[in-house]
Automatic annotation (TrEMBL):
This is DNA helicase-2/ATP-dependent DNA helicase PcrA. ATP binds at G217, V218, A219, G220, S221, G222, K223, T224. It comes from Streptohalobacillus salinus. GO terms for cellular component: cytosol. The lineage of its organism: Bacteria, Bacillati, Bacillota, Bacilli, Bacillales. GO terms for biological process: recombinational repair.
Length: 754
């Protein structure tokens, strides 16, 4: 590429200067690293095992410095050939010379002058690159706002360490770098967007970090990518206060986690906790449960009978609702009221603590604690009172004896009878004293054996074991049919010792209220991708378990293929779970070509419901085509031709997507017949092959250079559920999309106006 930009030489020199500076820093740091390592070795040699404090501190200090150095070195090494991607020139008000900032993935300052050579993309001034148009601008750093003019905004294409091109961005020439980046194949994409983050995305990344956030974004609008960048931005700002493990990203499945983790190291967020909801719930419960796969429920919703679908939708919908949370909480109130033995704690006949006082402590005074912790506190208290009260009881026995003795002395006149009565009294007293003396604190333990001891899972089972009680916990009545469904389901699952995803929120609440949550599993910041698949109760339970409301939920209701369980309306989530959340929208779609995105929008518009329409970023490609196939040999012929064509065009990752799992098996047989290497993707698999075969529901969240939607005998109907499935399938393709089936109508293509 020949670059004719007038500043080419100046820019070339700056790049060389930066690269040289990085090289020298790396050399010096490597030496420093050796020094630290030597100091550590020395400290180890001098380690005096009897008085090791100094040497130990020495080792720790060096180890920490070494760690920091290694981290800094690792990030510098990563950027050494492409140290920055953009530049802004900012003329601060009342000054005459603009300051120039080169923007990259890390910061680098000259050691002697502290002048920035590169500024981190997450730093305040970098906001101008993403947000500012030439002219009057401002940016905020800490409490201060800087006003001025953005006089230059420039992008660089640096290839193999050499400056290949320069683009000045103004109103007219925009997004060339974005266009170039979007044309890249899938393997190169996720990491590189930092140079091309768009204004609406930048707003999401930099929005108030102290508030929860709900991001509604169309398919391919960068929700996953932007969530990762916001995490990176969060870490940059809070690195001294929050450990990466205290941040969690929840993704729909293992496959998706593997897919995003590839990009995490690049963003410096690789140590954050990554899990699926079920995995996190199992960690919290401290128990692995047999979980009925959510996709099986989904398949019932796709293929089941009308009644099965109705039943499934009711159960999942109810168990994900605030109404069910109320049932669980009402159940817990009853458990709480009888958690401790319903009697006073006594030493022999002497009351150490009344039932009323025990209840008062348990229900009122320790109400901020989980039940088990309240019990522990009361055990401590009882043990303490036991020790002090034991002497009091002995004294009391003595006093009681005195009083009774006096009474006998006065009232019993017959000396013989009096002698006998006194002798009995003495025996009783001695007996009682002996018994009390022998009592130990183990009395408290014995007493507490009568307290509640069911496990969290047993409590959950108990909730569904008594219909009358269950009804008494309901705040809004259910119909007998609905109750039958709930109880039949619970019974059949109990027999199989299986739970469904829909049972986990209730289990989390029970765990949080009864045992409490392990502090290591508490979080400070939680990102939920594919948030439309979560129920309100699921999010509320997560808030309770993680101990934070700092949630960033991203989703797209058009892709809500689990909508019978999840969120169909963001206002509901906002009102019922995250009332203080900021609400942001991503309207533009970056993944796909205009032709593919328009087709996807036309498909969803066939339904009765209205969903947000994506605005594709201007990038044209081939129109998606339909190929007819009836016999196996037709499928073989078409698929072979299409796949080979894609590969020849350099498309690195290809997906063959079918509506159901059964369909994917047929595709696999066909590709095997062609001796074409491919991978049939299960929920928990990692993508390993270039050609993957996947059912729509598992493809959600993923993207491929090219996709072929293949159907055999079943078709997509014009129902809300199927339209969403088809929408998800279509929007997985980045560059190329084709359809193969016996009829166009199987993809509803005939219904679309052309
Ligand atoms: N600003 C950008 N510059 C370059 N590429 C971008 C940008 N924003 C998004 N992309 C690309 O668009 C594609 C879609 O992004 P992503 O998967 O994050 O979207 P999504 O909203 O999570 O999609 P979906 O909901 O369909 O799963 C990715 O390839 C991503 O790299």
């Amino acid at each position: 590429m020949v670059c004719n930009h007038p500043d080419f030489q100046i820019e070339h020199d700056y790049l060389m200067y930066t690269k040289d500076y990085i090289k020298s820093i790396l050399e010096i740091s490597e030496k420093e690293q050796e020094n630290y390592e030597d100091s550590m070795k020395e400290a180890f040699i001098n380690l005096d095992y009897l008085d090791s404090s100094l040497s130990y501190i020495n080792i720790l200090t060096n180890a920490r410095l070494l760690d920091m150095l290694k981290n800094d070195l690792a990030s510098l090494i990563k950027v050494k050939d492409k140290p920055y991607f953009g530049r802004v020139d900012f003329l601060k008000d009342h000054t005459h010379t603009p300051a120039t900032y080169y923007i990259g993935k890390v910061s680098l300052y000259r050691k002697d002058t502290q002048e920035p050579i590169i500024v981190d993309w997450r730093s305040p001034v970098s906001n101008l690159y993403y947000d500012g148009r030439l002219g009057d601008v401002s940016y905020q750093s800490g409490e201060t706002t800087y006003h001025g003019k953005l006089t230059k905004k420039r992008q660089y294409m640096i290839e193999s360490g050499e400056l290949a091109d320069i683009r000045d961005i103004d109103m007219t020439t925009r997004d060339e770098l974005l266009q170039k980046s979007l044309q890249e194949t899938s393997d190169k994409r996720l990491n590189e967007i930092v140079a091309t983050i768009q204004a609406e995305q930048n707003e999401v990344i930099r929005a108030d970090l102290t508030k929860p956030m709900i991001v509604q974004g169309v398919a391919g609008s960068g929700k996953t990518t932007i969530a990762l960048h916001r995490l990176s931005y969060f870490i940059y700002h809070y690195q001294d206060q929050i450990k990466p493990e205290q941040m969690m990203i929840l993704a729909p499945n293992r496959m998706f986690i593997d897919y995003i983790s590839e990009s995490l190291p690049e963003l410096g967020v690789d140590r954050i906790t990554q899990a699926t909801f079920a995995v996190y719930a199992e960690q919290v419960l401290g128990k692995s449960l047999k979980i009925y796969p959510a996709v099986k429920e989904l398949e019932t919703m796709i293929n089941g009978t009308k009644v099965d679908k109705e039943k499934q939708a009711f159960i999942a919908g109810f168990k994900g609702s605030v109404a069910f949370e109320k049932v669980v909480l009402n159940y817990l109130t009853e458990v709480r009221n009888h958690y401790l033995p319903d009697r006073p704690f006594k030493l022999e006949q002497f009351k150490i603590m009344s039932e009323k006082r025990l209840k008062q402590l348990f229900i009122k005074e320790y109400r901020y604690l989980p039940f088990e912790k309240r019990k522990e506190k009361i055990v401590q208290l009882l043990k303490k009172s036991f020790r002090t009260k034991k002497d009091e009881v002995l004294k009391h026995i003595e006093e009681q004896f005195e009083a009774q003795y006096d009474k006998i002395a006065h009232r019993v006149k017959d000396p013989l009878l009096r002698k006998e009565t006194v002798s009995d009294l003495l025996d009783n007293k001695a007996f009682l004293r002996e018994r009390v003396k022998k009592l130990t604190v183990s009395e408290v333990t014995k007493f507490m054996k009568e307290a509640e001891k069911r496990s969290v899972v047993q409590h959950y089972d108990a909730l569904f074991s008594d219909r009358v009680r269950f009804i008494s916990y309901l705040e809004t009545p259910l119909t007998p049919q609905q109750l039958d469904w709930l109880f039949e389901e619970a019974e059949s699952m109990r027999k199989k010792k299986t739970y469904s995803l829909d049972d986990l929120p209730a289990l989390l609440v029970l765990k949080a209220k009864i045992d409490g949550i392990d502090p290591d599993l508490k979080m400070k910041y939680v990102v939920i991708d594919e948030g439309q698949d979560y129920s309100v109760f699921q999010i509320r339970a997560l808030i309770r378990a993680t101990g934070t409301k700092l949630f960033n939920v991203l989703g797209d209701v058009t892709q809500g293929i689990y909508s019978y369980r999840g969120i169909s309306d963001w206002d509901q989530l906002m009102n019922q779970a995250l009332p203080s959340a900021q609400d942001l929208y991503l309207k533009k779609s970056y993944r796909t070509t205009i032709e593919i995105m328009n087709l996807a929008s036309a498909i969803v518009s066939l339904g009765d419901k209205v969903y947000p329409v994506a605005e594709p970023v201007v990038r044209h490609g081939d129109a998606p085509a339909f190929y007819q196939a009836n016999e196996t040999k037709d499928y073989q012929l078409v698929l072979k031709e299409l796949i080979e064509g894609y590969l020849n065009k350099g498309h690195a990752r290809i997906a063959l997507i079918s509506k159901t799992t059964a369909g994917t098996k047929n595709i696999k047989t066909i590709l095997n017949g062609l001796a074409m290497e491919s991978q049939l993707l299960g929920e928990t698999d990692k993508i390993e092959a270039d050609i993957v075969i996947v059912p729509v529901h598992s493809a959600k969240g993923l993207e491929f250079d090219a996709a072929i939607l293949v159907q055999f005998d079943e078709q997509y109907e014009a129902t809300d559920q199927d339209l969403k499935l088809l929408y998800v399938a279509i929007t997985r393709a980045m560059h190329k999309l084709d359809f193969v089936a016996p009829e166009r109508s199987m993809f509803l293509l005939d219904a679309i106006q052309r």
